[in-house]
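Inputs:
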Amino acid sequence: MTATLPDARGHFGQFGGRFVPEALMAALEQLEREYEAAKADPAFSAELTHLHATYSGRPSILTDAKRFAEHCGGARILLKREDLNHTGSHKINNVLGQALLTKRMGKTRVIAETGAGQHGVASATAAALLGLECVVYMGEEDTKRQALNVARMRMLGATVVPVTSGSKTLKDAVNEAMRDWVANVDNTHYLLGTVAGPHPFPMMVRDFHRVIGLEAREQTLSLTGRLPDAVVACIGGGSNAIGIFHPFLDDTDVRLIGFEAGGDGVETGRHAACIGGGLTGVFQGSRSYLMQDAEGQTIESHSISAGLDYPGVGPEHAYLNEIGRAEYRAITDKEAMDAFLVLCRTEGIIPAIESAHALAGAIKIGKELGPEAVLLVNLSGRGDKDVATAAAYFEEVGMA
Amino acid sequence: MSLLHAAFERAAAENRAALIAYIPAGFPTVEKCYDLVRAIVDGGADIVEIGWPYSDPLMDGPIIQQAAEMALHNGAHATDVLNTVSVVGDAGAVPLVMSYWNLIERYGVEAFAHDLKAAGGVGVITPDLTPEEAGPWMAATDSDEIDRIFLVAPSSTDQRLNIVTDATTGFVYAASLMGVTGTRASVSSHAAELVARTREVTSLPIAVGLGVSTPAQAAEVAQYADGVIVGSAYVKAVLDADSHEEAVIAVRSLSAALAQGVRRS
Ligand SMILES: Cc1ncc(COP(=O)(O)O)c(C=O)c1O
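Outputs:
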């Protein structure tokens, strides 16, 4: 039953909805209509499936990570390899879907926000593939932290706009993208990169990522003959997590566990764990949990992972937390970086630092559940973009 | 009759549009803002919207963003918003609050309506709240007799104009253009058409805002709207001034010039 949400107005229980300027309401209504029509159109699904198969590389494989599993209390660890997708993360699933929808709506320009740059790169890629103009808003701080991805986006023909307002990070890039969208909605689609924002984004972005969970469920069944005991993913806005969780919602014996960025530790206040350390409220278009002070001003988030460094989280996760269907815990920077190195050295896979939060989660949950357990872990992206950050971190702490 | 209605009636009787000024509370500091408010009213504003500075003002352009950042940096809090509302009332104009929704929700929807009333505030403009999500807000504003002002935009369908105007009390805020707050070289051509479309579905006064900043633009808008809303121009006048004294003089003369502008010849 949880799998049928949101309701007609985009609510997941008390969460979600549409909190936007009136000027955007018509565009959101149009988007919702066009998306529903596309979803019902076999030609649209066929085109997307074709792109998955011939362009981004789906289905992504499942890796039985035997040496990594030794660090997880011996539990069996199955890695869903979204890192092997074209452009290096799960983000491409959503981007291809929305880019096709943009063409279908007759719009010629896409705008996107990006933190780590993965969604920006994926958007620039899809825009190049489909002949769309692409503008990516990125906090000025992030353009420095993720210079490689800025260069990739520019190479792909996108315009990268450094955002200098507010905290100069991802949330401010979202604000700026919204401002652009209000002014250019006639020819522009806002290609939002996670399951946040106003309805229909949380639903639509989730649907485009469900392919992760649908594939992984089948792959796990055929490899092990049963469903996993737990599905584990990292949570920024929550798109890779909801993508792998959603097809398991009605498998009530399967635990769904999301790992938020704990930064220096939730108790320090320097983190990005909205569910674990935030309050409910309205932020960037929908009701969910967010990091805010006593008067409702957004608090800056902190995480070593640029892709998780966001003070909001998607409304469906807020709902799944509230009804107890999914659990959310925090992983500190240190725990994530320890797990990062373990995966490098046991499996020869350099994960994205975002995904390393899920890996650290798997280490904990594996130890809790013991060697009989099967854990499905979403390896949402690869770590090429993070090599400089990781090297600096390990140097600072005297490791590696 | 509400104070807001009375202000529009008085303006209409004088064959002019009402002048509605916007200034964020706590900008550039809490105390200095009081001086600015008094000067804005003294210069001739009928109604003053006190902006509640917010960390993520997604409907605002660079000028008001900068003001909000300064105000927050200088420690503007909810109580300052309410105190500034009282200053507007004491100065003899009609006080409104303009606030992004999360701030009100965190304060407590009923508590805010209540405390605003106590401070002399008569209405609230909520730029990121649409009637569909406003259930508790409608109840709270009804019980405290606070006017709730929603926005219409050039992109609003006829169906949405009905939804928005049905939920609105006091006056309808017509966003003149598809975009954010800021000064513009000319008034959007969409404004007059939007006002005409809105008049077909409501008898409420209609005020036009976004991108109206000069007396000439105010005069143009006053030909078809009941109120003219000016925000970024006030903020810019303050940002451009070399001293607080100059800023006070600048906003007073801006009000005076705009008050001339809104007269229908
Ligand atoms: C590899 C990777 N994983 C996860 C995320 C976090 O986003 P989400 O929670 O929407 O999956 C990002 C965002 O940049 C990412 O690049």
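Remarks. Chain B has one domain: 3-261. The pocket of pyridoxal-5'-phosphate is lined by residues A 89, 115-116, 118-119, 194, 234-241, 307-308, 352, 354-355, 380-381 (CB under 6 Å).
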